[in-house]
Amino acid sequence: MQENLGLKENKWIAFGGSYPGSLAAWYRLKYPHLVHGAVATSAPIVAQLNFKEYLEVVRDSLATTGEECNTAIKEAHRQLHTLLQDKTGWITITEKFRLCTPLDGINDQDVANLFSMLTENVEDVVQYNEDNRAFEGVKGTNITIDVVCGIMTDKAGGVPVARYAALNSMILDVYDEECLDHTYDTLMKELKETSWENNTSVAGRAWTYQTCTEFGFYQSSDSADQPFGNEFPIEFFTQQCQDIYGSRFTYSLIEASIKRTNTNYGGRNLKVTRVVFPNGSVDPWHALGVTADLSTDATAIFINGTAHCANMYPALPTDPPQLTQAREQIAQLIKKWLQE
């Protein structure tokens, strides 16, 4: 770019959000002679196999509406677990949760995938709560934590598991999905696909490979301090690495890969200057990010009440003042860096 634009003495600033936020910080770490500063938004900077804190932050974010929401979700998962105990319950789950094929309640991988998918319904809403993705035409941006908890705490909607099914139906309808394809075989078929034609999981396959060989980041149900049950443990995710990519992608290989990543980049002991790390308190990814200053020249901006990469979207009149202030703070830091 410098050659193309005929630039000689200019300074470059790297911007990124989420994993690209990590890359922005690591770019500044590894190539400080090429990039003058970096804005690393919602950036996980420590690789971790079992990211069980993810659901703990989801719980905390849901609790901003009151504890009743988490209580209802916990009870819904308990009721789902009870329905799993016999074939009549399997039929009920199949019908109420609009599964594409009948649930086989003794297929542990199908059950784990189903519970993980139902939890993802809530995870996705929390992670992107009240952001401005709508400017890109993204569907479902009007489904917020308040909407989810409104459904889950509405006793007129029946017992908690019925409300949980209603939430699932609403999300299926928003994304124009007829049914929920819960089977592990379907997941594996999608992630094993290597051709470009008619492939809906190109990015999914690539990112999953990176989790198996660099980062982990598996959002398991292994924490007891969350309301989503315990049906999708860490082994459910690590097994996928072998099932998709081959037998050599073992648990120990993933662990060694994560250790290498943290050694390569520094993990939480990242040594950088002229980097700012904005994070939102609602965003579960802040648990693996920088939420306190690393130094006077590697600072954190922790934005209360905002979600994933909120500061990177175009401003809205409804933005909370702390989000507006964070954007101004980032701009002032960049201005300062460019004078250095």
UniProtKB/TrEMBL annotation:
Similarity remark: Belongs to the peptidase S28 family.
Organism: Cherax quadricarinatus
Coiled coil: none
GO biological process: proteolysis
Keyword Signal: yes
Designated name of the protein: Serine protease K12H4.7
tRNA processing in keyword set: no
Spans traversing the lipid bilayer: none
Lineage: Eukaryota, Metazoa, Ecdysozoa, Arthropoda, Crustacea
MF (Gene Ontology): dipeptidyl-peptidase activity; serine-type exopeptidase activity
Alphabetic keyword roster: Glycoprotein, Hydrolase, Protease, Signal
Family matches, as Pfam families: Peptidase_S28 (PF05577)
Source species, domain of life: Eukaryota
